[in-house]
Amino acid sequence: MIFGNIQNSMLEGELSLMPKPLSDAICFLKDHDMAAHEPGVFQLELSGVPMTLQVLDLNTAPRESLRPEIHRKNIDVQFLASGGPEEAGFYSDDGTGIVDEDLLDTPRDILFYQNKEAAPEGRIRLIPGSFAIYFPWDVHIPAIWTGSSPAPIRKIVIKVPLKSCLTEHPSQESVL
């Protein structure tokens, strides 16, 4: 997982360490007013890599009402464009999660786990401009409320194909 903010003075250095498709996605978010973008699902191409852009208007919710999720074919670049704040839970997928719903073989490329009280879950707090990048081994729980009531958020998700980040090291794909 990578966590940052597009306003960070060291963003350029952070981006230089990322695979180009991920840095392109962050630059797209930085260079476009995503708070003003119409909601929906859109196809996007950055530097020749096809990606999916989701613009979602949601409300944060209590942690216990949300399910942990993972993706296998895509890397999720999640961005808080407005509203919030929002917390997101995360932990490493150790293979012990109990599957609640498996949609990995659908265009959504998502698997939901049942909540596991013993999961070593960490938290990050997102404010507008914050981004989190979740890899296939990162279980994540977005849209957690920070207090005791829901907050509206404009959440942007760019789905970056995992394969596009492995082109320099194709042998790594078999590891996943």
UniProtKB/TrEMBL annotation:
Pfam families: DUF386. GO terms for cellular component: cytosol. It comes from the Bacteria. NCBIfam families: YhcH/YjgK/YiaL family protein. This is YhcH/YjgK/YiaL family protein. It comes from Lacrimispora algidixylanolytica.
